[in-house]
Amino acid sequence: MFLSGKKYIFHAPSGQVGYAGLMGRKKGISEEQIVVAARRCFLTRGAGVSAADVARELGVSHTTLFNRFGTKEGLMIAALGLPEKVPWVAALDAGPDDRPIYEQLVEHSKVISAYILELEEGLAVLQAAGISPAKTGWEHKGDPPHVQALRALTTWLRRAQDRGRLAKCDVETLASTILGALHGWAFFTRVCGHPESAAAGERHVERFIDLLWNGIGGGRT
C-alpha cells in the first residue's frame, strides 16, 4: 500500500488470494505502477474493465499482469482490497505532540476520513464484481485493519488523557465513536449519492470534531 498525492492507494500483500508473486517482471514497470493504473481504471470505468485494458494503459501485455497477480480477480483485490497495514497508524503511534490536541485530532481525523472514503470506493467495485468480502483482505496475517485502527486511535487518546490534555472519558468508546462516524459519512456519501469533494469532507470532519470537543475538551489544549 502506498500514497499517491493525497490519495491512499491500497496494495494487497503477496499472500493475497489470486496473487502469483513476482514472476515475469517487465523491466521499468513496477508493481506500484500496475496497481495505481488498475485502481484508476476500475474506479473510473467499473468492474467490467479487462486486464487487457489495464495492460494497454501501461504498455505491457496482459500476460505480464497475470504473471504477477494470477487472475483479474487477484489484480482487482491488490488494487482495491483492504490493506495489510493501516497507513496512518504510524502517525498516531508517534503522538500526540506539543500542538493543541484539538488541532491534532482534526488533522488525524481528516486523514482517516480520506482513507475510509477511498477504501469504500474500492470495496464497492469489488462488491459489484461479485468478489466475496472474505477475499478482500480479511485473511491477512496479524490483526485486521479495523482492529489496528481502533487500537491506535484509542492509545493516542489515552496518552492525551494521561497528560491531562483530554477530559476524563472512556477513550475506547470515544475512539469507536470517531471511527464509526467517519465510516458512516463515507457510507452516506457513496450510497446516498451525496456530493462530495475533499474540501467538503474536511469541513464535515471539522464540524464533527468541534461538536465532540464540547464534551471531551473541557477547556484543555
TrEMBL record:
InterPro entries: Homeodomain-like_sf, HTH-type_TetR-like_transc_reg, HTH_TetR, Tet_transcr_reg_TetR-rel_C_sf, TetR_C_Proteobacteria. Signal peptide: none annotated. Pfam families: TetR_C_7, TetR_N. GO terms for molecular function: DNA-binding transcription factor activity; transcription cis-regulatory region binding. Gene3D superfamilies: Homeodomain-like, Tetracycline Repressor, domain 2. Keywords: DNA-binding, Transcription, Transcription regulation. Residues 149-210 form the Transcriptional regulator TetR C-terminal Proteobacteria type domain. The keyword Transmembrane helix does not apply. Residues 34-78 form the HTH tetR-type domain. This is Transcriptional regulator. The lineage of its organism: Bacteria, Pseudomonadati, Planctomycetota, Planctomycetia, Isosphaerales.
